[in-house]
Amino acid sequence: MNIHRSEHLYKEALDVIVGGVNSPSRSFRAVGGGAPIFMKKARGAYFWDEDGNRYIDYLAAFGPIILGHAHPAVTSAIMETAVNGVLYGTPTEKEVRFAQLLRRLIPSMEQIRFTNSGTEAVMTAIRLARAYTGRDKIIKFAGCYHGHSDLVLVAAGSGPSTLGIPDSAGIPASIAQEVITVPYNHPDALKEAIDAWGDQVAAVLVEPLVGNFGIVPPAPGFLEQVNEWAHQAGALVIYDEVITAFRFHYGGVQTLFNVEPDITALGKIIGGGLPIGAYGGKREIMEKVAPTGPMYQAGTMAGNPLSISAGMACIQTLSLPGTYERLDQMGKELCDAISMLAEKYGIPVTINRVGGAFTVYFTDQPVVDYQGAQAADGELFAQFFRLLLEEGVYLAPSKYEAWFLTTAHTDEDIQFTIRAVERAFKKMKPH
Ligand code: PMP
Fold first, then answer.
1. CA 334 → CA 171, 363, 365, 409, distances in Å?
2. Interstrand relation of 39-43 and 46-49 (parallel, antiparallel or unpaired)
3. φ, ψ of residue 230 in degrees (nearest 5)
4. By Cβ atoms counted within 10 A, which residue in 14, 64, 159, 319 is the most buried?
5. 157 contacts: CB under 8 Å, gap ≥ 6
6. Which UniProt keywords apply (predicted)?
């Protein structure tokens, strides 16, 4: 495959944009390095790169593009809004209507505030929990990603109830000390941390269904236990539903699983592909936020008409009958075929799938936590990624990411992908 223009653009990018990319997860470092593919155009389930190659897109921009690219409903909403001005710095009716719609679908969000990104939403949800409880520490789960604010870029200490160490340069040790990291799906480790630090904990922060070390559902009873123990200790529960909301059904996974957090953070799909985030929760907690209360958070672009209109169009379109059934059916078909082919070609594979999102881990062990995902073979994934790319199938360039199906994928796309997977497996060399 000819990717000369991508290679050339990458060279130029490396000179002027640090690392050549505006977000590290776009680089191909985790899959052997070299130029990432520079995309020129996207429509429906397809990308076209700068050299004219076509790819079936399973990245969906790391989640938001659930309707496929340039969906007419979203595109017209953006265009109709743009002609009336893109940013006012005043309240608008659209924001009220969108907040009402989100509250109807995720009722624990009694009051809502829009932000510009998932990072901001989670960062502020934590500040709010601290403001409400008057406590400083948070408990989070290893491998869960919550954006790039200081507090959540902290890795596990050496044991489940030790304090954290920074995962990035530039984060003060004093901040990392406020974070306790425990393994996901291990209630005993959470209990141990709560027993040790519970009276200082403002919140337990969790992806209620993990999307950031691949797709990992909560074990039965796990989320109920998080709620029970956090609340017993006087801490709040924050759900980071930046990936999960509207991905698996028409609402948050909290409404799917019937467990409610105190505060929820949203992003990605609710912006229809434009920048957005939101946080919300019980009225009594949200009233701590300025101008009603003493906790400050603001944003020049927050709730801007373009993001709100695109988000509204996306969420309304997702309500069409059969949307989630179709995503689930395509996901099942693809995963069943991948499992069957993996067996046929002797490739060790574990697939975690929920609806139209799944991760193919190159391991024969079940993956229920970060350690399990780490144990999956990155070298085999890199081979798989490169071979599929050659076939015109674009996956996220990391073994820790998910494949996201969109409503734009067709049965032919699924069949094309299955044939590509078979050719890839045939060439792969497990060591
Ligand atoms: N939380 C989760 C669960 C995420 O997956 C992400 C982004 N991948 C974020 C927060 C941060 O969102 P953003 O990139 O919009 O800042």
1. 41, 18, 20, 12
2. antiparallel
3. -60, -50
4. 64
5. 163, 164, 165, 180, 181
6. Cytoplasm, Isomerase, Porphyrin biosynthesis, Pyridoxal phosphate
CA distance 399 to 362: 8
Ligand 1, atom 5: closest residue by C-alpha: 243
- Which pLDDT tens digit goes with each residue over 28-49? 999 999 999 999 999 999 999 9
Ligand 1 pocket, residue 350 CB under 6 Å: no
DSSP three-state, residue 114:
strand
* CA-nearest residue, atom 7 of ligand 1: 147
Q: Rounded to whole angstroms, how far apart are CA atoms 344 and 280?
A: 48
DSSP per-residue codes, 358-404: EEEESSSS---SHHHHHHS-HHHHHHHHHHHHHTTEE--SSTT--EE
CB 110 within 8 A of CB 280: yes
Q: Which of 284, 299, 318 is where one domain is finished?
A: 318
| Ligand 1 atom closest to 241 (CA) | 3
| Residues known to be catalytic | 145, 240, 268
> For tokens 């990072």, what's the residue?
119
Of residues 230, 206, 241, the one with CA closest to residue 370: 206
Q: Are residues 125 and 246 in the same domain?
A: yes
Residues 108, 113, 117: CA angle, nearest 5 degrees:
105
Answer yes or no: is pLDDT of 175 > 60.
yes
- Torsion sign over Cα 383, 387, 388, 392: positive
- Is 117's C-beta closer than 6 angstroms to any atom of ligand 1? yes
Is 404 a pocket residue for ligand 1 (Cβ < 6 Å)? no
Residues 191 and 270 in one domain: yes
Is 301 in a helix, a strand, or coil? coil
Give 385-431 pLDDT, tens digit per residue.
999 999 999 999 999 999 999 999 999 999 999 999 999 999 998 77
* Residue 199: CB atoms within 10 Å: 11
Judge if 267 and 294 occupy the same domain: yes
Spatial separation of the C-alpha atoms in residues 257 and 129, rounded to whole Å:
23
- The reply to whether 87 and 59 lie within a common domain is no
Host domain of residue 401: 4-70+321-427
Q: Is the ipTM reported for this complex over the cut 0.85?
A: yes
Q: What does the DSSP 8-state code read for residue 44?
A: B
CATH number at residue 348: 3.90.1150.10
